[in-house]
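Quick one before lunch.
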Amino acid sequence: MSFIIIIINQDFIYTTPLSTHNVLIHSDFKPEMERFRALGRSAFVLGYTGLAGKALVKELNKAKIFTKVVLIGRREIPLDVGPEFKQKVVDFGKIHEHKDVFQGLDTGFCCLGVSSKGISQEDYIRITRDYCVSAAQVAKEQGCKHFTMLTGNGTKKDSWYLFGRVKAELEEKLEEMNFDRLSIYRPAMILGDSEGMKVSEKLARACFKPITYLSPTRLAISDSLLARGMIVNVVKPHDPSVREIYENKAIHDLAHNWKD
Ligand SMILES: NC(=O)c1ccc[n+]([C@@H]2O[C@H](COP(=O)([O-])OP(=O)(O)OC[C@H]3O[C@@H](n4cnc5c(N)ncnc54)[C@H](OP(=O)(O)O)[C@@H]3O)[C@@H](O)[C@H]2O)c1
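Model of the NAP complex:
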């Protein structure tokens, strides 16, 4: 298999297979959304104050597929969402002391993570891997059946880069937890609102624009398409024989099932 490898900085490593992973396209997605809505499921979102998490909340607010959505983070932010959304502030270092916030929530989305720039390796691993694993453990104990995790393109056990190795360890630990269903997303560069981004990140995104124009599904994904891909997949009936790891192109394919 041939690969495109683009290195912009340590956190942006893209090893994109040129062959594509095909995702089943559902010709009629709306009835599936209705069917899911009728199940009366509830969810939580970790990392909802970040780029991917905010977009997920926005799309969940449009989809209205959950009766309750608990947004779990280290701070509250202003949000224009429906009454089914509740923000809860926790200390991720002591997540076992916050079991109650996960109680009875059957679906979990984890968009928590941090850039490896400007922090120690120890802190990077603690936030990127350990916070997510601990939160997943507590969520499972409290009734989470379907856990969704954002790792990233370049996730690889023997990666040269810390990002790839730590995300691979995270995926492995989540797989060992035996959720009823685990869905892993490996987006390439996530494009969205650049508010709060470092100058180097803005520059990297600007450099990417012409490339993403020429090859829209390979090297990047918009925050809203990523969110839609995750929502479409949650709604889709689960096939337990499939190991759910979605690379960038597959996330695009999932997202295009959702037409406004
Ligand atoms: N951005 C990309 O291009 C890209 C590409 C591939 C994969 N990913 C992965 O996708 C995930 C989401 O990325 P993103 O761009 O949305 O990240 P982001 O904008 O930096 O958001 C990260 C989220 O994690 C939270 N967080 C960070 N450090 C924390 C800490 N010490 N304690 C508690 N919460 C903490 C942030 O909370 P605060 O708002 O309070 O800081 C925020 O909600 C990450 O795991 C990332 O590695 C990103």
